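Hi everyone,

Forwarding the result from last night's run.
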Amino acid sequence: MATIDILNQNKEKVGTLTLSDDVFATRVNRALVHQVIKAQLADRRQGTAKTKTKSEVRGGGRKPFKQKGTGNARQGSTRSPLNPGGGQSFGPVPRSYAERTPKEMMKGALRSALSDRFAAKRVIILDKLTFPVIKTKDAEKVLMQTLGLQNALVVITPDKNVELSTRNIKGLKVIRTEGVNVLDIVKHDWLVLTQDVARGLETRLQG
């Protein structure tokens, strides 16, 4: 079983936590992580690009020239895709880029991402993370100065004071435990969890 020190907000060791090897020390499947990240990024695409077809472009009700006798190919509308200002052939239309990702694939990718951060010694476990008032300076002192974090993902249980105190700190992203995802873990150098969050992730990802 993997073990890690539990720190308080003053960076003092207050205990140790035993973590499940199935979640924090499993084999890293890089291909699966890549596939899930690719799906996450695809889901973010709006897919709102749109061009007008011949039937949607304004105008073109009059035949541009007579059917016969001009020597030109026959034309029924000035809005043809062949003419300047005409409609677009096979242009983009609104669509969804979402990719279906089975739950077990998502869980496997999360286990791989967590294991990779743990193997790199880039995981910090806190006994708790709380602030008595909403104050960015207090959050910066604990997370950036005392813990020395740069480019970190902090996962917490719902706490309004923590969320509002940290939302304007550059290089720091705070999310709730239900929002943990592969892309955010991979994007950040450090992963900070409270011990309650670590236990919750174990329960959620085992099996």
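The mean pLDDT is 92.

Cheers,
N.
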